[in-house]
Amino acid sequence: MAWRGRLWVLAAQVCALATLGHGTAFAATPSFDCGAAQAPIEILICGDDTLAKADADLADLYRRLQSSLDGNARADFLSRQRVWLKSRFAACGIPTATGAKLSDSQKAGACLLALYRDRINELPVLAQNSQPGTPQASDQPVANPTVPVAAPVSESLPTALGLARTEFPATGEQDTILSIAQFGRYSVSVKSAQGVALQLVDRMTGPSEAQGEPGSADGRIDAFLDRGHYKILLHASEKGSGQAALSVHPFAELNGPDIPRLPEIKRIDAALDDYQQRSYWLEITQRRLVAIEVAGRNLADLRLWRDGNWLVDAAPIEAEIEPEAGKPLAVRRIVTTLEPGLYLLSAYGGPGETWAKTSDAHPLHLRMGIPIIADAGRQTFMASPFGIDRYLVPASANFFRLELPEAEAAEISVGDYKEETPFDLGDRSAISKKTLPPVAEISDASEDQGYKLVTVTREAGKPYILQHFQSVREYDFKGSGDYWLSTLHSGFGEDNVDATGVLTKAGIEYPERVIESNAPELATGAVWSRRFNLLEPVTVYFNVTEAGSYVVAGSGATAEYRFEPMIHLGIDYKAPEFQLSGYAWKLEPGYYILTGRPKNGGKGILTLRVADANAAPGAAPGTTPGGGDQAKETSVTFPKLQLDSDFRYALYLNDQPGVKAGAVLRRLPIDLQQGLPVTLKAGQSLDIPVTAPGGGIVTAIAEDAKPMAFTIDH
């Protein structure tokens, strides 16, 4: 077992001893969560009420005594308690590896209980002895006489960091003593011409695994070491020659002495090199699961410390990413459940990744949590320095689209979000340099409760558009008060027929009626003309305000057409037959659906004209007979609706070939913490009632990632 792994297990198994826990009247509760117990010593304590109570009592006593000490006395008291905690395993024959079995749990339990009772009696004396000028007492527990006891630690604790010897012949076996004056992370390394391996021997836990290879590779050991003396073993080839130089480096804290808090969601960009560490405080107010992700060129390890002292049993998941070509970063991720309290997150440096080009940069990026975005949106983002961005979207969304300004490598993944596995990928769709248009889409209706996890992989610093919504043709809803209602549409608006929608209202004794619409109006002299791709059947809503004959004419693609009332006239209603281009439809006032469909394989670019039979012929697409422009409707927007909870509402959207559509419903004033996607036509302006958090920054960003001008009235 690797030294670093073993030390982590040892510390993790007792990390909760510095916290106070009390159980119910039915069973004693130790100082840690038995629901998460995995180590043999934890399982042993949780299975015995007397042991559990002793563990809780010792934790309570230790916490009270430590709080009465200051400075060096406090640190010395902590160091001695760590030594005692590690010594329990050898004293009572308890294995350290998770999943290992006890040979005699009854004997080990009795031994451990005796140690706890003795320690409870000893701690007040040790606290007093930790004061300056007081003779030091041993921290070695009195073991069960039937269990072998580890060799006692030295009575004399080091006061300075150092190696008894630093130069050695690079041949055969050598050893020296390492003195550690205070707990921390240290790097012990050797340099030679041919390769010397290293081992570190702890008096309590024995030798670590050898690092390096005699005759081929020099060794390096990075480890958390308590105050005390350690033996360093050097293993060189018997045929070796020359000298081997041994050195020790303490890790320097870059954020001290006033260590900052780790913010939720907000990314931190910093630097971290070899022999350095960077720490952040994390305050947990209620039991919760945390997901922390850190990436860096020199990142070697990531750890959580309860109260800054006790190692949390949460080994980081290791990975490697390459957010920019030729610049790989090491990644460490921690996903664990934390009890209320204060925790220290520390990232530790190491030798570092090799980059394609020489650079003095040693970036470090940290983030905790995954941002939650609205159930519908379309927004431009810049890919983070991780090259991987994650978002939580309400599970009602079932359509997701990634767009790039040009064809390059990128990927979108969508899956059901599981808190315990927040970095997992779901269904995936990729964009390559050959993908035209540079778009990836995923439809996912797997769950309608909770959240979906959306993961976008893209070269760091490059823009992308993320669009998502619940894809519908009919959107039913209820509400009370003032609301904003708009739609989002996939694809490129200029290639499609207009987005038209009709909003209706209905109640128990209130027949369904149209209350809002953006449908083009047909009246005397009216002309509506559009040019778009006709690949499959298409529909458009129209509002006929004057009875008359209206001609539907198309060119460029062979198609047939039909007008129908939007609200059918009962169960005996029979739809009219489709007619060819040029047919005049006699229509009464009301809302209608115009359907056009390819005929005889006549797909292509269609120029469609709908006009009063007496209107001047030949109007160009998108114009009126008077020459005015008709801007294409790429979205349906109703900026202010007054809803009544006694009624139900339905938004009907037309069919646009190859286009998905969804609705954005928000209560007014709109909370800008969720953002709001807005579609504006050229020259259009909107007044939108909004609220924003105090001290926040309000921005308006166009799809090209450039800022847009806006004003705010308080």
Describe the structure.
The longest helix is centred in the N-terminal third of the chain and has 25 residues, at 105-129. The protein has 714 residues and is mainly beta. The protein is elongated, with a radius of gyration of 35 Å. The model is unreliable at 1-26, 136-155 and 620-629 (pLDDT under 50). A hairpin with a 2-residue loop joins strand 16 (317-324) and strand 17. The strands form 11 sheets. It has a 5-stranded antiparallel sheet, with no helix packed on it.
Give the N-terminus to C-terminus distance in angstroms.
64 Å
* Overall pLDDT level: 86
Strand proportion: 35-45%
- Extract low-pLDDT stretches: 1-26, 136-155, 620-629
Oligomeric description of these chains: single chain
